[in-house]
Amino acid sequence: MTTFRPNDLHAYAAALLAAGGYSAAHAARTADVLVWANARGTNSHGVLRIPRYIEMVELGLIDPQATPVVTTQTGAMAVLNAGRAPGASGMMAAMDTAIGIANQLGVGWCSARDITHAGAVGYFALEAAKRGCVGIVMTASGPLMAYHGARVSGLSTNPIAICAPKSDFPLLLDMSTSTVALGKIMHAKDAGTNIPEGWAIDADGRPATDPTQVNTLTPLGGPKGSGLSLMIEVLSSLLVSNPVISTALAGGKGSMNGVAIALKIASFTDPDEFAKQVDALAGSLKALPKAPGTDEILMPGERGFRLSEERNSSGIPIAEGTLKRLAEVGDRFAIPQPAPIETKDRPSTASG
Amino acid sequence: MTTFRPNDLHAYAAALLAAGGYSAAHAARTADVLVWANARGTNSHGVLRIPRYIEMVELGLIDPQATPVVTTQTGAMAVLNAGRAPGASGMMAAMDTAIGIANQLGVGWCSARDITHAGAVGYFALEAAKRGCVGIVMTASGPLMAYHGARVSGLSTNPIAICAPKSDFPLLLDMSTSTVALGKIMHAKDAGTNIPEGWAIDADGRPATDPTQVNTLTPLGGPKGSGLSLMIEVLSSLLVSNPVISTALAGGKGSMNGVAIALKIASFTDPDEFAKQVDALAGSLKALPKAPGTDEILMPGERGFRLSEERNSSGIPIAEGTLKRLAEVGDRFAIPQPAPIETKDRPSTASG
């Protein structure tokens, strides 16, 4: 791990993306989302994505200059055509649109059609919470998880994020619909360890414990996780007539879609009272008697908010493998890696 | 099991509820929801609830004559005060309101405040699908499941249902946020069998395999299920300033709340095209290679739709224990149990 100042890491990420063809605005927004994830400890959705994003530009899968455009607005719903713009900008435009509608009508729903990989979707739900709303975000992509009862990939791990403000940091749920993220399987493979039965299945559809034998991920709780992922595909993709799963399973080239929903708190209740009630809810759960092995009962997102607060002052550590791959991209465009934070500058609280 | 004609069972259920104080309209609507669940094989949400519903009237927990009233409507959102009306009527009024708004504005959100037990929430989501919408329903009630990391009940098993029409029966996801329903633990207790590790915890917060030692249910997938249940409490209860969980955990008397959301399909896309795409999605998943032990890949709700089609012609079987408890209520009000279907009348496809 090498630790960087957040601003330096952000500038580096944005410079790499801009060199790869991203407009300045798309590069800045994408760097925001990626560095946000690194700061929260969600490295799988951090700057390690940059080489693939740039490759996707080169393959024509991302249009790095496209401007998302609202193509339909009827009452409280809108459809935004993202035109394969960088996913962070597509979903941010969708959430902006949803919040704008919610400010007028209490509730705003914006479907984002033809987005690309958006990063950690909690970022967009959090944006709503910063602006007086409860935010809900879903995205739908191609097969990489089993449908319950099948032995091959049939659905994506389609995530859902829900964020509500409270007096300190918000409640921020950001969950995939699989049992575990693919990254946990990759990690076990790298570490040469087995995985617990239930995380994944092999090519015969039987539980895989050897990570090298994994064929696909299992859905969270079987039919519940695959049912939820399926309905996210319906809500995100079929409502805008851009099916991802049936297209991909027929051998076609899938796209991605997303939904951003905003609920204006002041339309429902007094926002201060709401924040107090969210505080009371969190407080009452955190005070419950703990199960063996639990040091502290945590709210959704709490670990990430704490870690990012710490890292925004002490620096953000990045794995050496990631830095090497970023340096390879940087070398192509003559973009130097920023200077790391010297060890003597780093407070002892910084965690790896 | 004794099998009844659906109309007879419905009339019996409605008569019992009316005798227990329900207005004719509330009795009919509640009987609809209960018999619908029995027909689909979800007996835990069927007519066995009637004795408790009547007891709740007697305890003042259900107001059997209350009329749910829309108290706020701003743009695309509404708040309906159910005033402890029978839950089936409260949530149906909420979904009616949401569909009415969606017909005007594309999306309608109705928060239902102070409902009572609503039965199987898929019923209300299905109503949206029958009327050209995608429907989403959530309800929030008091603690009966662990929050992740706690060893006692902290949250409810708050369900979410999502329904989308297709050319034959709709996709209907109706899932709780616990690993399994409480009914499965009760059944193991009755049967004298152990339960798998992971379904429940004992009073020390350790996995319980002896059903008599169960203290509370586990959330689906740990932090994911408890996070989702928590956010359903925020969306259903805190947005209408009627907190259930923090009130109950502080020793107070909790209420219940719900949300009904409707999305007018024609505002987003061509409804016929949408139905075709939902068909194609289901078809592509049903055709996937099956895992060992899977006879058929099923869509959310498929088993229930098939079973109800069969039972609506061949009759609905009800367990003897349930009939005995219903007869005890019936005896109080001089309401006779309907005549069962004679065995010779029953086609051989009737399942138990």
Topology (SSEs and partners):
2 copies of one chain form a homodimer.
Chain A: E1 2-4, H1 6-19, H2 24-39, H3 50-58, E2 69-74, E3 77-81, H4 87-105, E4 107-115, H5 122-130, E5 133-140, E6 145-146, E7 153-155, E8 160-164, E9 171-175, H6 182-191, E10 200-201, E11 216-217, H7 223-236, H8 245-249, E12 256-264, H9 265-268, H10 271-286, H11 302-314, E13 316-318, H12 320-333
Parallel strand pairs in A: 3-4
Antiparallel strand pairs in A: 1-13, 2-3, 4-12, 5-8, 5-12, 6-7, 8-9, 10-11
Helix pairs in contact in A: 1-2, 2-4, 4-5
Describe this protein with a few key phrases.
13 strands; Hypothetical Oxidoreductase Yiak, Chain: A, domain 1; globular; Ribosomal Protein S8, Chain: A, domain 1; 3 domains; Wheat Germ Agglutinin (Isolectin 2), domain 1; disordered C terminus; two-stranded antiparallel sheet; 12 helices; 41% helix; alpha+beta; 7-stranded mixed sheet
Structure description:
2 copies of one chain form a homodimer. Chain A is α+β, with helices and mostly antiparallel strands and 352 residues long. Chain A has 3 domains: 1-64 and 315-345, Malate/L-lactate/L-sulpholactate dehydrogenase, four-helix barrel (Hypothetical Oxidoreductase Yiak, Chain: A, domain 1); 66-178 and 221-267 and 299-314, Ribosomal Protein S8, Chain: A, domain 1 (2-Layer Sandwich); 179-218, Hypothetical oxidoreductase yiak, domain 3 (Wheat Germ Agglutinin (Isolectin 2), domain 1), CATH 3.30.60.50. Chain A has 12 helices and 13 strands. In chain A, the strands form 4 sheets. Chain A has a 7-stranded mixed beta sheet with strand order 2-3-4-12-5-8-9, sandwiched between helices. Chain A has a two-stranded antiparallel ribbon with strand order 1-13. In chain A, helix 4 (87-105) links the parallel strand 3 and strand 4 (107-115). In chain A, helix 1 packs across helix 2. Chain A is globular. Mean pLDDT of chain A is 95; it is low at 348-352. Chains A and B meet through helix 4, strand 4, strand 9, helix 7 and helix 8 of A and helix 4, strand 4, strand 9, helix 7 and helix 8 of B.
